[in-house]
Amino acid sequence: MSTTPNPTEAEETQEQLDRVLSAAADCTWSQTSPHTRADALAAVADALDARSDALVREALRETGLPEARLTGELTRTTVQLRMFAEELRDGSYLRIALDRADPDFALGARPDLRRWLIPVGPVLVYAASNFPFAFSVAGGDTASALAAGCPVVLKAHPGHPETSRLTAETVLTALRESGAPEGTFALITGRQAGVSALRDPRVAAGAFTGSVTGGRALFDIASSRQDPIPFFGELGSINPAVVTAGAERESAEQIAAGFVGSFTLGAGQFCTKPGILLLPSGSELPKRIAELARDVPAARMLTSAIAERYRETTAQLCELDGVEVLVRGTEEPDPSGVARVSPTVLHAGGASELLTETALLEENFGPFAVIAEYSSDEELRSVLAAVPGSLTVTVHAADDPDSDERRSLRDLVALAAAGSGRIVFGQWPTGVAVTPAQQHGGPYPATTAASTTSVGTAAIDRFLRPVSYQNAPEFLLPEALRESNPLGLPRSTHQPGASQRWTAPQQ
User: Fold this and answer.
1) How confident is the model at residue 504, as a pLDDT?
2) Which residues contact 233 (CB under 8 A, 6 or more apart)?
3) Fewer beta carbons within 10 Å, N or C terminal of the chain?
4) In this predicted model, what pLDDT tens digit does every residue of 338-380 receive, in sequence order?
5) Which of 234, 353, 363, 379 is catalytic?
6) 87-101 tens-digit pLDDT
7) Could you tell me if 128 and 161 are in contact, meaning their C-beta atoms sit under 8 angstroms apart?
8) CA atoms of 17 and 15, how far apart (whole Å)
9) Where is this region: Disordered (predicted)?
């Protein structure tokens, strides 16, 4: 096996790919009960924990990420597997609804209707480069698709091939020992194999985390198929951060340190990195941010390809007219062969300059940030409205803003909600809590499906679709919809006569 961080991807042969896709299409994983799938996911989590030392050691060698970061990320991976297991045991994710037949329904006789959610079918998951565990082989996309009852075909990322192989081996063994049917999970490698699989009619959905260019190309393939399929892509996000005058007066040093720590975390290779900081005119923060950024040591990029794109994009942005380079990052060699880079910070001048130099409004994946200053609420709002869809918007305001600032903040937050999936107050967006209330998604280009999330238990919704049964005989109903409710799943029931509350009162 190559020890370089960018080995040539081994391509699956068409025969190998066909076997994998046929096994996924024929797999009976969707027919297993939620409790059975829950036990299997918990077993996968246990197996990954048991092999954590070997997995972290290999990921450390392949990615150069800090050991503590990788250990924490593997913990996140097993925690989210167990969270989905609990979601399955609870059963409410199926949103089962029973409407009893009602001859006196307000709109005419109502038939017996029973609705629930079923798996969409085999899911093709593309592993990400920057999270070798949490968004890779056994990451959130895989966990949520398996929880939904969908077989998973995982396209490994070439940036950490051996980590992927070891993780997949662990997942497969745990699933088999749990009684999961053949075809429940498989790993494939190769760029062409990933494209061919997406075009194959046996694949029912795709999930991707990566670049705008790559994700959009795959989205277009999924959408242009003879039978288009949903494609849940997380692409690029600039994640603007706004600081009010009141916040700067109260917390200037904390804001400067927090911003530098956030945009340089993991060498700036986080999808939630705050790429633009909007400050009130005359702010002293740019000077302090530059001082702090100069002290941040160079860190290794994930792959040579990512480093090359970052190098080219940064050079182009530094040459834009009217842009001041506050900190020009350096590049150092690394024994791995992948460059180590230090932060670059640009000052674009007035915030309205961002409206003409739109290249500054695009994600630059690495330790790079743009600062701009706004002179009025109107200028700030016009810039925020022009920012492409983002995963997050961050707001730093005074602890007790005056009435004028409160009005401005209401408008600001409304814009933030229209253009992002998560609004962060008084903190920074890097670091995504894995919880039921999390929303990790946003309008394009942040994602290709703004109504969904790829983090948190609601991620399961992506791989389910609703089906209703009307006047079905009891023996033809799925067990979950039968009167006896043998699986004991929660469900809402509407009895005859309940619709009377919707009718107009009698005169």
Assistant:
1) 54
2) 206, 207, 208, 209, 210, 215, 216, 218, 219, 447, 448, 449
3) C
4) 999 999 999 999 999 999 999 999 999 999 999 999 999 999 9
5) 234
6) 999 999 999 999 999
7) no
8) 5
9) 484-507
Amino acid letter, 379 = E
Q: What is the pLDDT of residue 434?
A: 94
CA dihedral 213, 214, 216, 217 (to 10 degrees): 110
Task: Report which secondary-structure segment, H or E, holds 59.
Answer: helix 52-63
Provide CB contacts within 8 A for 418, sequence distance 6+: none
Q: φ and ψ at 152, to 5 degrees?
A: -120, 130
- Beta strand pairing call for 123-126 and 205-209: parallel
pLDDT band, very low/low/confident/very high, at 6 (cuts 50, 70, 90): very low
- Categorize the per-residue pLDDT at 328 as very low, low, confident or very high, splitting at 50, 70 and 90: very high
Which of 60, 131, 144, 129 lies closest to 432 in space, CA to CA?
131
Pairing status of strand 96-99 against strand 113-119: antiparallel
Span 194-249, pLDDT tens digits: 999 999 999 999 999 999 999 999 999 999 999 999 999 999 999 999 999 999 99
Asked if 234 is an active-site residue, the reply is yes
Q: Are 245 and 280 contacting, i.e. CB atoms less than 8 angstroms apart?
A: yes
- In the chain, CATH 3.40.605.10 sits at 14-235+452-464
SS3 202: coil
For 261-289, the pLDDT digits (tens) are 999 999 999 999 999 999 999 999 999 99
* Active-site residue flag, 271: yes
Fold of the 241-425 domain: Aldehyde Dehydrogenase; Chain A, domain 2 (3.40.309)
- The strand pairing partners of 352, in sequence order, are none
Residue 109: count of CB within 10 angstroms of its CB: 9
CB-CB neighbours of 312 under 10 Å = 11
Give CA–CA dist 46/51, Å, rounded: 9
DSSP-based three-state secondary structure for 126: strand
The CATH number assigned to the domain with range 14-235+452-464 reads 3.40.605.10
pLDDT over 90 at 498, yes or no:
no
Active-site option among 150, 271, 363, 405: 271
